[in-house]
UniProtKB/TrEMBL annotation, chains A, B:
Naturally occurring in which organism (per UniProt): Subdoligranulum variabile
Keyword Transcription belongs to the record: yes
Pfam families listed in its UniProt record: Aminotran_1_2 (PF00155), GntR (PF00392)
Protein name: PLP-dependent aminotransferase family protein
HTH gntR-type domain segment(s): 10-78
Source superkingdom: Bacteria
PROSITE patterns: HTH_GNTR
This protein's UniProt keywords: Aminotransferase, DNA-binding, Pyridoxal phosphate, Transcription, Transcription regulation, Transferase
UniProt family annotation: In the C-terminal section; belongs to the class-I pyridoxal-phosphate-dependent aminotransferase family.
Gene Ontology molecular function terms on file: DNA binding; DNA-binding transcription factor activity; pyridoxal phosphate binding; transaminase activity
Amino acid sequence: MIELDPSQKAPLYEQLYAALADEIRTGQRAAGTPLPGRRTMAAQQGVSVNTVDTAYQMLAAEGLAEARPRSGFYVQSTYGMLHSRARRTPAAPVPPPAAPAGPVPLYDLSTGSVDTALFPAHSWGRIQKELLYQRPELLQRGEMQGDAPLRAQIAEYLSVYRGVDCTPEQIVVGAGIEYLLGCLAHLFHDGMAAIENPGYSRTRTVLQNSGIPCTLVDIDREGLPAAALEKSGANLCYLTPSHHFPTGVTMPAPRRAQLLAWAAAQPGRYILEDDYDSEFRFDTRPLPSLQGMAGPDGPVVYLTTFSKSLAPGIRIACMVLPQSLLARYRRDFATYANTVSRFEQQTLCEFMAGGYFTRHLARMRLAYKRRMEAFAAALRAALPGVELDGVHSGLHFLLTLPGAGGERAMVAAAAQQGVRLRGLSEYYLARPELCREDTVVAGYSALREEDVERVAQALARAWLCTPSDG
Amino acid sequence: MIELDPSQKAPLYEQLYAALADEIRTGQRAAGTPLPGRRTMAAQQGVSVNTVDTAYQMLAAEGLAEARPRSGFYVQSTYGMLHSRARRTPAAPVPPPAAPAGPVPLYDLSTGSVDTALFPAHSWGRIQKELLYQRPELLQRGEMQGDAPLRAQIAEYLSVYRGVDCTPEQIVVGAGIEYLLGCLAHLFHDGMAAIENPGYSRTRTVLQNSGIPCTLVDIDREGLPAAALEKSGANLCYLTPSHHFPTGVTMPAPRRAQLLAWAAAQPGRYILEDDYDSEFRFDTRPLPSLQGMAGPDGPVVYLTTFSKSLAPGIRIACMVLPQSLLARYRRDFATYANTVSRFEQQTLCEFMAGGYFTRHLARMRLAYKRRMEAFAAALRAALPGVELDGVHSGLHFLLTLPGAGGERAMVAAAAQQGVRLRGLSEYYLARPELCREDTVVAGYSALREEDVERVAQALARAWLCTPSDG
């Protein structure tokens, strides 16, 4: 009854094994019954005895059959001990995700997505495939901090483009900023962290989950003020100085110097600099990183992610540890395996080494800049009196529209028109009364260029009372 | 001077951009000098004005050129601010790894490697490539616990093959056991853990790094004794019941029942069951997991890894949380991104759904069983009086040879002959005096079949005094 097909890719022994395994699993071959003799089976199927033997051995190796001395192979008689449970209680089907409240958004202006059409699937896929076939050693365990060639590429890139002053030895690659913050929490286990308000609630969650108490410090127009930080009693300070999240403030140089002075004033003080989207700056040269101002032995841990420059689904981030933390990190994490697949590490490494990464970034900057300009123009045309802030960098901006009923009403009315966005006050971890009024956060990274006009019109319907409707 | 080649894959605008970027970076085009007019450049290169414009825009987007109104494009005059640092202090070259002490081992019998020749590169690569081109949504952020289809596959597999009793909702996918243990440490933040002695020092390190104090409990011939566990005062217990690491003891059912009774006796007690290599069992049916005995609401967290069944370089592990921990886990980790690349998650998912995974395991079991048998036979022939223990499962066994000078001398003499292996006492985290004498741990997963005889001969030279040499 079994049909083997020599033209298939799977070898004959595997086809035979799969067919027999199926018959055993479905009960067509009862537990304890003998399998046909090897010669008989070989003759029946027109294959060699070796082919049958390999198939039988595979069945035995999987516990579907057993070899009895001087008697041949039998369907495993104890088969069913584990399997009967599976028959009784099959894995429950995954319930469908809960239906979202209100209409499904047609246009998603939340932050954190990317335009998948910009991903360089062709070169990325080619490199990945070559590595899989040509570099089998990448299947083995790699270096704890990440593979050295990738760290060398990242150090070079951060040095040239972000003014980071480090050697590859200071770089730690990890599967996301959350994971790296968790490692840092161990190094700072008796510390307390100041977090920007408004800011990333994620950072507070991760640090608190990892045992670091957090205090919130309100930012002003130049970012986090050094005096308030001093007063907070924290010894750690998490900052997004290149492009404050979500307000878009770029911290000016004097403020940076004040914060570095704060860190240098006492041993054990550290700044955690999150440079999460500095790749996207459209009109001006970026300021170099705080880490670069402080130097390789300064009190700054630099963190960045490839989630925005590549894709959030590819989990690669990195941090640059100052020399003062490096020895302790290496001692305490010596037995850890790195959390990023070596194939993805090496794909990124070759992607950077071959110049694809900087070209990809240039292309993305251009595409996002055009999209931002088109979106901003459409919004200004459709929404008289609108103010847009933070358009020069990053992948989102603030949109303020007085007279549209306030932030909450704006978010709700936009949702009714199929546009998902968040109010600025949602990013306040405390004291939302400090929040600028009538302001929402508009991310455009996942917005298609052909939808720009439609989104502006939908928001106009949501937020403007047209006299003709009255 | 720039040569564009229409037959290349890269579009012409990208070739032009790359050539100009190179000239700017190497200083051939000085800061502040104008780039040729777009029409002039287009005529020179025989391309369209649009092509030149796109290349110039890319240069501007990367900060290498700037557009001046009514004047055209100039090499960025502030170029060099970040770049000059890179020129002054180029990233230091990675120093070569420290030379190992003694001769380089020719044969590595340490545990933790795999035979890369057994990796199913062909089907894995094909699935991966299809996903990259056909599923761009995988570039976006996925579910916190891991993608649902993968969790459904894992739940089904664990149910059928390991008797694990869970739904996909209880499964958490993560980039390695260390990462998952770190998450668990947060859930158990006021706990104390008992660790098997001998055992995995890695587990102790991770739990202690994450703030969980650890106490060591000596195992006996059936694994960790419940009475000693009760006396230890721990409320958490890390176990390898299927195949104790490194002694290979399989915990019998009565001992399992005693340990489950210990956990059930007080709320807040949990067993962490690490089923790290249960796929490799050659002669007997595996006992179902402790988790399955305890049920989906029982006090057991089941952990397993794909490091051995796929490859250590591909970082995928998972845990099964009991219902009692699930709500808290979801609340505290709600904002975390999963640590495994979605392409690798989905590749594994399709690999399992298509039946490749069980076939791959069957092939590996067969290959490793043959290798183990050949290696054991060669060792028994070459080393009269040798005892081999734990050959029926896992990818290593214990080798005892009285009269060879003791464990330390055996390890050193083997190294002199080019064979790397570890003494059993190295796995004792305390009380090494309890260790069985004259015993080393021999892993054979990375040993090639054609080397089996040579390794046995090398060990014979290392450990036997041949009278003719005397």
